[in-house]
Amino acid sequence: RESACVRCATCDGHPCLVNAKADAQVVCVDPALRHPNLSLLTGAYVQRLLTSSSGRAVTGVVVEHGGEQTTYTADVVVVSCGAINSAALLLRSRGEKHPNGLANGSDVVGRHYMGHINSVLMAISKQTNDSVFQKTLALNDFYFGDGKDWPHPMGHISFVGKLDAVTLSAGAPAIAPGFTLELMAKHSLDFWLTSEDLPDPNNRVTIDRDGKIVLSYVPNNEEGHKRLIAKLKGPDAEALIVEV
Fold first, then answer.
1. How much is the pLDDT for 241?
2. In what order do the strands lie in the sheet with 117-124?
3. Among 32, 67, 74, 81, which residue has the least CB neighbours within 10 Å?
4. Where do runs of H (alpha helix) occur along 127-221?
5. Which residues pair with 46 in a beta bridge?
6. Which residue has the higher pLDDT, 204 or 4?
């Protein structure tokens, strides 16, 4: 099958207008919707899950849609709302059998939230970089440490989508003229670094009195990430590397 990709320069970080990305919509949702026994309801808010009198089975899904509230039932209910909203839905679904939230007898639902530690670094080279699909190479050499000075995990290094003057202007000082940013972008190699954070029970999702989601998160395990940045920069690097 021929790809619908038109090889544009706005691939990374942008929605694809020709459905050429292998994202969840193209790979999962659209093919599933071809079947007559599936319906997709958009613009809906799942308020809570209802349970049986024993509290051991989900009997209904309370949904707000178009200003009206409806309860849906099914033999199988799958909660798949992402790390934050899945926890929030279970916490909102408290009841007599589950006073702290559904499936939360251990008080773990919403706790141990992890979000990774991320950095973007840009190297300025003497050579121009005309790459369009730059985000195709990566290395995990230091994922489990460097084998000598630091035996603990550091993380993953990859290229990020090609930076341009518009992207750089978001974090550049006001005194940096546009042509300077354009020149920098043409000579840049752009890196994405990510390290694992640790499951701290104080990093958590909670619900306030008004039912709004509260995310409490403090980064941890930062030493390994700092060392990963140092590995990328290197002691003898000729190119200028800056964090953006």
1. 56
2. 138-139, 156-159, 188-195, 117-124, 240-243
3. 67
4. 165-169, 178-186
5. 63
6. 204
**Token pair belonging to 161:** 């989508």
Rounded mean pLDDT of 36-47? 95
Residue 136 tokens read as: 């195709």
Rounded Cα gap, residues 211 and 45, in angstroms: 13
Please give the torsion angle defined by the CA atoms of residues 73, 25, 110 and 57, in that order, rounded to the nearest 10 degrees: 20
CA distances from 53 to 58, 94, 96 (A): 10, 13, 9
Q: Which of 65, 81, 89, 62 is nearest to 73 (CA)?
A: 62
| Torsion sign over Cα 120, 121, 124, 130 | negative
Nearest-angstrom CA–CA distance, 232 and 56: 51
Token pair listed for 239:
């190119």
Torsion of the alpha carbons at 69, 73, 78 and 83, rounded to the nearest 10: 20
Tokens at 39, concatenated: 């319906």
* Cα–Cα–Cα angle for 134, 179, 236, rounded to 5 degrees: 55
Cα 60 to Cα 46, 74, 79, 212, 220, distances in angstroms: 11, 7, 12, 22, 39
pLDDT at 238 over 60: no
What is the C-alpha to C-alpha distance for residues 6 and 4, in angstroms, rounded to an integer?
Answer: 6
pTM for the structure as a whole = 0.83
Q: Measured between alpha carbons, how far apart are the two ends of the chain, in Å?
A: 39
Instruction: Determine the residue type at 240.
Output: L
